[in-house]
Amino acid sequence: MDINKEIKKLENVYLEKPQRVFSMYLNTDPADPEQQGGKWKLHLKNGLNSFENYLQMDGDSDEKRNYWAVKEMVEKYIHENEQSLAKSVVIFATGDQSIWFAEKFQMPVETEFSWEETPKLDQIKEMLDQFPKTGIILTQKESIKILDTELGNLKDTRLYQLDLDTEDWREHTGPHRAQPSMGSGGKNTKQEQFEARFEANRYRWYKSIATHLDKLAKDKEWKKIILVGNKEEAEDLSSNMNKEITKLIPKNMLEQEKMKVINEAVFS
User: Fold this and answer.
1) Are 151 and 105 in contact (CB under 8 A)?
2) Which of 81, 99, 100, 223 is nearest to 151 (CA)?
3) Taking Cα atoms as reference points, which of 103, 102, 71, 100 lies closest to residue 86?
4) In this structure, are strands 153-163 and 168-171 parallel, antiparallel, or unpaired?
5) Sheet holding 224-229: strands in order across?
6) CA–CA separation, 259 and 147 (whole Å)
7) What are the start-end ranges of the E strands in the chain?
8) What is the pLDDT of residue 19?
9) Among candidates 143, 132, 151, 136, which has minimal Cα distance to 228?
10) Which mean pLDDT values do the consecutive 10-residue runs of the chain (268 residues) have?
11) Euclidean distance between the first and final Cα of the chain, in Å?
12) pTM of structure
């Protein structure tokens, strides 16, 4: 899902009664003191019930049916995703399902609900301003991993590995091939030879993939690019790319769990 495009569509929505747009920002951040003991469940229940109670008194029957349909979809989504919730959930929905946007995010929101003619977009727009489409490029010797993210969510992953025989970068789809291993007595001859060759050719080899990374950044419409890896390697790659690098993190994190990388690269 391209969240930016979805928001642009939502900006043009205006519905007459009995249709309405339901908007929900639900803070589910377990680190938030206000959410201890799963209090978000109570906030969700109260938020959903408040509109139901209002419509029981003042809404017409068609509007009630539309709201009940939305409430059922929201409760179903939360139930199915409860074990994988992060810090927040954002939902926009209509009873006829012409609008259904439901996403979990790694950033907190202020809990709020609305049932109005238009979707309430202020919070998600602010989130997009802070955390737009971002490419995280992790480099470690002959391997380069790309994490395509938006609003801190992982959208796509790619792994490129250098074929040392042909000196071509190839997109790798199988399990990650490890570098030559260390022997118990220190570096073995094979690894020493590999490292010597890599250091001698590093700049040229990184230059050969930099154009591809620039094109990827353009195609993915990244607003920010974060480079993560050994300082010298990351600087070589950065100097060969035309796209501006937003941040450089001098750490080898290529083998780290993806969400851990995103949290450190994007949110720290």
Assistant:
1) yes
2) 223
3) 103
4) antiparallel
5) 168-171, 153-163, 143-150, 134-140, 224-229, 247-249
6) 10
7) 21-27, 88-93, 100-105, 112-116, 134-140, 143-150, 153-163, 168-171, 182-183, 186-187, 224-229, 247-249
8) 93
9) 136
10) 89 94 95 81 94 81 93 97 93 96 93 97 95 95 94 93 88 62 57 82 90 96 96 94 96 94 90
11) 25
12) 0.83
**Token pair listed for 13:** 């929505």
pLDDT of residue 181: 42
Amino acid letter at 74?
Answer: V
Please report, as a single letter, which amino acid is at residue 135: G
Residues 222, 198: Cα–Cα separation, whole Å: 29
Q: Which two tokens stand for residue 242?
A: 């035309």
| pLDDT value at residue 59 | 66
Provide the 8-state DSSP code for 227.
Answer: E
Q: Which residues pair with 115 in a beta bridge?
A: 22
